[in-house]
Each structure stands twice: as C-alpha cells, then as structure tokens.
Amino acid sequence: MSKYSANQFGSLVEVLRWHSHELADEVSVSFLVDGEDDEQSLTYRELDQHARAIGAWLQDQGAQGERVLLLYPPGLEYITAYLGCLYAGAIAVPAYPPRRREPTKRLESVVTDCDARFMFTTQAITDLIHTRFEENSAFSPMRRLVTEDVPLDAASTWKMPSIKPDDIAFLQYTSGSTSAPKGVMVTHGNLMSNEHVIQEAYEHVRPVFVSWLPMYHDMGLIGNLLQPLYTGGRTVVMSPTAFVQRPYRWLKAVSKYRCDTTGGPNFGYELCTTKITEEEKATLDLSSWSIAYNGAEPIRADTLREFTKAFEPYGFSPEAFYPCYGLAEATLFVTGGPKGHLPTYATFDSAALEKNLVQPVTVANKNARELVGCGPAWGQTVKAVNLDTLTETNGVGEIWIHGGNVTKGYWGNSQTTADTFEAYLPDGEGPFLRTGDLGFVKDGNLFVTGRIKDLVIIRGRNHYPQDIELTVERSHPALRPGCGAAFSVDVNGEEQLVILQEIEREHRMNFDADAIFSAIVGAVMKEHQIQIHAIALLNTLSIMKTSSGKIQRRANRQAFLENTLETVATWSAPKETPAPAKAKSQFSAAQVERWIMDWMATNLQIPRARITRNKAFAEYGMDSIKAVEFAQALDTWLEGRVVLDEVTAWDFPTISELTEYIVSSLSGEHPNGNGNGAHSSSPQNLNEVSDDEIARLLSEEIKALRNQP
To answer: Domains in the chain, start-ordered, CATH in brackets?
Structure first.
C-alpha cells in the first residue's frame, strides 16, 4: 500500500476511491446474517463499485443535492446505499423501516422536517409498507427508489461530484422528540475532521471493528462503519437483535476476527456480564481487544469492574476500556481514553455537585458519588461554562465545544441553530456548541454529571418528557390534561421512567386504578417503547407548577423520591419473572389461549380477569424484551412444533390471532410457518427487526438476573 495520509483527501469518497485501488481485494465490510457464521462480505473494490453504481443511478434520477431517506434493515445494502448517496452528492437521511404494525409518527416527522424528495429502500420493504405510504400524505410526495433497480454496470457512468467541505453529507436525526425531531447537518468536512480525530485518539492503523449498533445512529455509522473504512480497516457487523438474542455473539466475533476496536453503551457490557455463560466464556480469546469504548449513556464504574472480573481470565485487559463522550451535534467523538490506560474513577461530594461545586471525597464518605472520567479532548476545545456568568469554570458547568467536528446546525431551524451552535465567551472566544450537558474538567479529564434540560434518557435513547406526558394524559379519560410529569430515577445503576399524573376532579372519588395503570403502561409502551418503573396518581391541583403554569419536573421528582406527593394510587413494575409451568403435549385452541393468558398474568403482572383475546400485546406492556422471553417460553411449551421468533408477538399482536396461527400450524395448514404473514425461521429474520429495539434492551431481564440467588 502506498503512503496514505488523510490530509491528502477532501472527502470520504476520495478516501474510498484510494482504498479501492490500494486495498482492492482486501475485505472492507462483512455482515453476519445470523449473528455468527453466515457471513456476507465486500472487498474494497466491490464496495467502491456498488457505491459508484448507486451514485451514478441516483445522479440520473436527479437526486444530487436532494434529501434521500434511507429505509433499510441492517446489512450490506444499507452500507452501499449510504455510501452511494455520498458518491452521488446527495444528502442521505438515515432512518429505519417501520414494521408492519409499528407507528410511523417519528418517521413522518423526519420526512416532513427535511422535505425528503426520495425514499431509497428494498423491494421487500416497499411491498410491506406500500399501502401505508400511499395513504399517508407525509410519504406520498416522495419518489420511491429500490436497490434492486440499480444496475451494477452503472458504475462505469459515475461522475465524481464536486464536494466541498461545507457541503452537507447527511442529516443525523437526534433520538429525541417524536413531534419535533432535529436533523443535524453533518458536512463532508465534519466527517473528515472527526474521522481523523478518532484515528488519532484510537491510534488506528487498519483496525478491525465488530459492531452490533444500529447503522443509522451516529455511533454505529460514524464510529463503527466509517472509521474502519477511513483507515483502510475492516468492520464486521451484526444486527442489534442478534446481539440481544445472544450477547455471546458479540464477543465470539471479537475473538474470531481478532477485533481490536469495538464497544457500545454501558448496558451492552452489563448484558454480557449477566448473560454469557461460563461454558461460552471458555471459548473466547479477547487478547486482541485493545479499545473497548463505552459511551452514549452514563458510564457505570461497577459495570466496568464486573465486566473485567468476568472476562479478564479470557484475555480481556482492563486497560482496554475507553470511556468517551460525544454527541451528534459534534459529528460523534469529543473526548475519550487515552488508549492503554486504566479508566479514571473518582468520587465527589454529591451535595456539592448539585450546587455546581467539585469536591473530591473518599469512597467511604456517605455523600460520595463515583464518576468515570470520559478522557481528554482530541482535536477540539472543551470547556465547562458557568450558566450565570457565561465564563469558564472549574466547577460544574455546561459543556461547550469548539472544533472542526462541530456540525453546521439543525436543518431548517435557524433560531435553534443560533441558540445552540453560536455561543461566545465574554472575551469573544467562540463560536461554541452548547451541548446541554453538565460536567467539569479536572486534570484534563472530562466528567459528565447530568443534563440541563429534562430529557429522559433510557438506555442511550433520549425521550422528551412532554411527549411522554401527552401520551399519558390521552391514555384514559380520568386523567387531567397538562397535569402530569415524566422523569427518570436511578434504580440499581440504571435510569428508569416514573410517571406522575393528576386525576380529573370528577373522577377523584370513583376511578378504577388498575384500568388506568394498564392504559398508561400500554400507551407509553406503544408510543415510546419504554417500560415504566413507577406510576403515582395524584390529587387534583397537587402537581407542582411554576407561576406561569409550567410543570416543575425536578421539584416533582424530588417530591417523589421524598415520598411527599399527594397520591391517591401507586403502581410499580414487578421485580421478578416467574417461569410458567410446562403443559401437556396436546395443544387445543383453549389450551393455547389459557397458557398465553397465564404467562401474561404471571410475567406482566396483569390481573387474569383483565386479559382479553383481542387486545394487542403491546397494550399490556409487552415490549421487545418480554416479546423475546415470551417467544422462547412458548416455543419450549409447544415443544418446538411451531415456527416462532422474536417478533411473533408483533406479527400476531393479539391472543386470538396468535392462537389461530399456532393451531393452524399444528394442523399442518402452515407447516413452514409462512402462512398468515408469519416469518420464516431462516437467519434473515434478524434483518426484519427494527434496529430501534436497541433503545429498549433487556433492562427488566438484567434486574431479574441481579435478584436471583
């Protein structure tokens, strides 16, 4: 390979063109269809050919400079479609395809916000959601393009677009409000700047990555896909669902492919610690793993220690841990590492932190709060700024960032862009990106302490409380509009959702609490895919508000923690998941329905009398985690006679529909499990599961495992 320097290229397209010649027959990217051994790969030459073919075809369709919505399951087609947009000079808008019965509100908001002109996807997805898109005014103006229509020989007609550093490469929609999502404008210059910073910080020389993160989110896309391509390395990808189903697959791939860089949110490490068996550990060799980055949600010191204890005997080095901090508005990476050092664990007085003061204390101190340092800044300026004086502080302040990786702003939102991206210190230094995060810098290490606004952040996904509150108040007529609060609390090291909600005056003396709790749990799960930790129904006029009528979420949260609320009824999530009893070998429709209802009553903590045949599973609070548990338990009970998978509860969303499928399958009407819309049992099923499942992974299962003796 000839001498390679990032500085000689102006865009990722130029980088990949270089690699296609210098590393032509080297594998660039592999996708593990089943999460293990079914591997699909592209060399650098093949990747470039596919990207040029798609780029030329999109140029012919008039997509250059236009927004192109990408709706793909995880796999090579997503990767080539994204790169094809870059090669075409189009603006990619990564998203994920809605499932058959999944709400499309967020996708509608994204399409409307960016005024997407094209939708690029597969024929299978187009066929699946054709009717829904035809009937939806938000989607109907888009011109639909499918991968299968792209001729590979179109690569020969591709013309290199004129790409300037300030041109927008793609829109990264933040995982926040469904009603008002913000599209971060990531330029080609931002990408090149941040990829160079990551390469420098990680000391990468043709690295091997393994990734289970969604490819439409910044960490999975910019970190795990584009960084190895930028540096001439290789990335091995599996779907998030493959990892969720069996966390061993992640570490098995690390061992098999001699991966040196991989990581994810804190919960991924916790899941490995609790779910990978001793027999599985014995097959691993993790000695090649030199960077185990941890970011996207609060980093827990106990998680890092427990993971090290579990996997150090199998080659994992504690010095591999690489805590880091970043955000989409800064492209991705801001601080981290440094490489080859143990993470920085430090304890501070929690009461002082709440007052924006930094006071180190010993672990023995009753007010000690342990924080994990997120490392030094790389190639950019990071400051903690006092919100009252707007001056740099040694205490806790808002984290401000300046550098070439700070993006252009929010698409079509000049005022929010100015407020967020154009901050200056009193001496004129700037502009800075205001992150909305609180933290401080000590000994060159960034410590993140919290968030200024009321974002509810559950397993790395942002939820705006006002969206959740609106869902809650609309879930039942006995609930008083504009009089609820949603916030998160720390439960055993994880952020969990709490709902406070006033009862309407006329319902105070006569309301069915169980029915209200069921309605709230079902509505929040359906609209936001979050499990609720606790609900408190309050007396009328008891929720705390400002003088102007705004909900005081922090004050209400404190009252909840101090148990000073005027509650009329409370509910909390179950802490254990008892296993249902095994049934006999004969399975009539009545037996199947009875088993399903018994399982739901036991595992979802629902009164048996409230379970009906034609109500959707999601409305009972069955999320993706419980759906996987349910499918596995049902498969065991049915002795493997019926094809079931992790999406069974979504494809047959009621007891009645699922029972009909099971009985018809047992009778031989659908011997392959393909009747009535069922999925095949082939590994490709993993591709059909929305990658947004990552945002709500296995919290209840982890807690249940912790509670086991």
So the answer is: 343-451 (2.30.38.10), 456-572 (3.30.300.30), 589-707 (1.10.1200.10)
Residue 644: pLDDT above 90?
A: no
User: How far is the CA of 19 from the CAs of 3, 51, 162, 206, 285, in angstroms?
Assistant: 11, 13, 20, 11, 30
Q: Using CB atoms within 10 A of its CB, is residue 175 exposed (0-12), middle (13-18) or buried (19+)?
A: buried
DSSP annotation of 506 reads: G
The order of strands in the sheet holding 381-385 is 381-385, 397-402, 433-442, 445-451
Q: Which alpha helices (H) appear in 98-156, and where do they start and end?
A: 105-114, 123-134
For the ranges 342-351, 458-467, 639-648, 661-670, the maximum mean pLDDT occurs at: 342-351
* CB contact burial 46-76 (16+ within 10 A = b; e otherwise): bbbbbbbbbbbbbbebebbebbbbbbbbbbb
How buried is 45 (Cβ within 10 angstroms: 0-12 exposed, 13-18 middle, 19+ buried)? middle
pLDDT at 103: 58
Non-local CB neighbours of 495 within 8 Å, separated by 6+ positions: 297, 298, 456, 457, 458, 459, 488, 489
Residue closest to 627 by CA, chosen among 652, 605, 606, 607: 652
Burial class of 664 by CB neighbour count within 10 A (0 to 12, 13 to 18, 19+)? middle
Structure confidence at residue 485 as a pLDDT band (50, 70, 90):
very high
Looking at the chain, the whole-number percentage of residues with pLDDT higher than 70 is 87
Structure confidence by residue, pLDDT tens digits, 106-150:
788 898 899 999 999 999 888 877 776 777 777 777 898 999 999
Sign of CA dihedral 110, 114, 115, 116: negative
Q: Is 699 helix (H, G, I), strand (E, B) or coil?
A: helix
Query: From the CB of residue 351, how many other CB atoms can be counted at a distance below 10 Å?
Result: 12
